[in-house]
Design brief:
Radius of gyration: 18 Å
Distance between the termini: 21 Å
Strand order of the largest sheet: 3-2-1-4-5-7-6
Strand content: 15-25%
Order of helices and strands: HHHEHEHEEHEHHEHE
Structural class: alpha/beta
Oligomer: single chain
Number of helices: 9
Number of strands: 7
Shape: globular
Length: 269
C-alpha cells in the first residue's frame, strides 16, 4: 500500500489559505505571473483527447487495481480539474489527487474531482511525503514555469523510486513551427508578452515561458533523475480544421507532433 500523503487530501477550503485577492479584469494588464494565472479568463485546461491519451498510457503502466492496493496518482497543475476528471475514466480504482496553487482553479476543480489541494512546485511545497506517490500527471505545466529545474526536483521527491511521470508539453519543433520559422514568423506556442500576441498565429495569451523539442525534453528529464520510457505525439486542438489530418499524421513521428507526451520513471538510485 502506498504511504499516505503528509497532508491527507480534503476539500479545498479546509486546506487552502484565505482566498487570493480578486483577479485583474481581462482588460487590465497583469502586474505579475500570479495575477495572470489567477485570472479566470486564462485557460487552465488542455484538450480532452490528449488528456485521455496520456491517462491511457498511465493506466497501462500502472495496471489494474489488485487486492485492494490502489496507486496514488497526483495531477500536479490540475487547473480546473477537467483533465483529472477525464483521467478517472481510465484510472478506475486508483486514488487521484489534484494539486494547484491557483485558488480560482481549485474552486472549479472541487466540482469535478473528489480531492483537490493547494501546493507549490518549489522548496518542498507539495503537501506530500517523500516517495508517497506512485505516479504524477504533469500536463502542460512545465512550459509555464520560471524554474523548471526546481519543479522536477520536487516531482522527483514525491515520487517513489520507479514511480511514473506522465508529462505533456507543446513541441517547439512541431511540423508547422518549422515552416513558420523559415518564413520568419514567431512559432506557435511561443509568447513574447503577457499582454498580447505579437508576430505569431493565434489570439489567446496563455503564459508560456519555456518551450521544448523532443530531444531537449529527453535530456532535461534524464539530467533530473528520470529515465524516459517513451515519447509519443498528440494533436493540437486549435490547428485549423483543414490541417487536422496532417496534424494527426505527424503524431506518428513525435519530433514533429504538436504536443509531446512523455512517459518517464524516477530512477532507482
Amino acid at each position: 500500500m502506498t504511504p499516505p500523503p503528509a497532508t491527507p487530501p480534503a476539500s479545498p477550503p479546509s486546506l487552502s489559505p484565505a482566498p487570493a485577492p480578486p483577479p485583474p479584469s481581462p482588460h487590465q494588464p497583469p502586474s505579475s505571473l500570479r495575477d495572470f494565472y489567477e485570472n479566470p479568463d486564462v485557460p487552465v485546461a488542455s484538450g480532452d483527447a490528449r488528456s485521455l491519451k496520456q491517462a491511457r498510457l498511465l493506466a497501462r503502466a500502472l495496471g489494474p487495481v489488485r487486492g485492494g492496493t490502489a496507486a496514488t496518482v497526483l495531477d500536479i497543475g490540475c487547473g480546473d480539474g477537467t483533465a483529472a476528471a477525464t483521467a478517472t475514466q481510465v484510472l478506475a480504482g486508483h486514488r487521484l489527487v489534484g494539486v494547484d496553487w491557483s485558488q480560482d482553479a481549485l474552486r472549479r476543480a472541487a466540482h469535478r474531482i473528489p480531492h483537490a489541494v493547494r501546493g507549490e512546485l518549489t522548496d518542498g511545497g507539495l503537501p506530500f511525503a517523500a516517495g508517497s506517490a506512485d505516479a504524477v500527471l504533469f500536463s502542460e505545466v512545465v512550459e509555464h514555469l520560471v524554474d523548471p529545474d526546481a519543479a522536477l526536483d520536487e516531482l522527483h521527491r514525491v515520487l517513489r523510486p520507479g514511480g511514473h511521470l506522465m508529462l505533456s508539453t507543446p513541441n517547439l519543433a512541431a511540423w508547422y513551427n518549422r515552416g513558420l520559422l523559415l518564413a520568419g514568423v514567431q512559432p506557435v506556442f511561443s509568447e513574447v508578452s503577457l499582454r498580447g500576441i505579437h508576430g505569431r498565429p493565434g489570439s489567446q495569451v496563455v503564459g508560456h515561458l519555456r518551450l521544448y523539442t523532443a530531444r531537449a525534453l529527453r535530456g532535461f528529464l534524464t539530467s533530473s533523475g528520470f529515465d524516459v520510457v517513451r515519447i509519443a505525439g498528440a494533436p493540437y486542438h486549435d490547428v485549423p480544421r483543414p490541417l487536422r489530418p496532417l496534424d494527426r499524421a505527424a503524431c506518428h513521428l513525435p519530433s514533429l507532433a504538436s504536443i509531446l507526451l512523455v512517459h518517464a520513471r524516477r530512477r532507482r538510485e
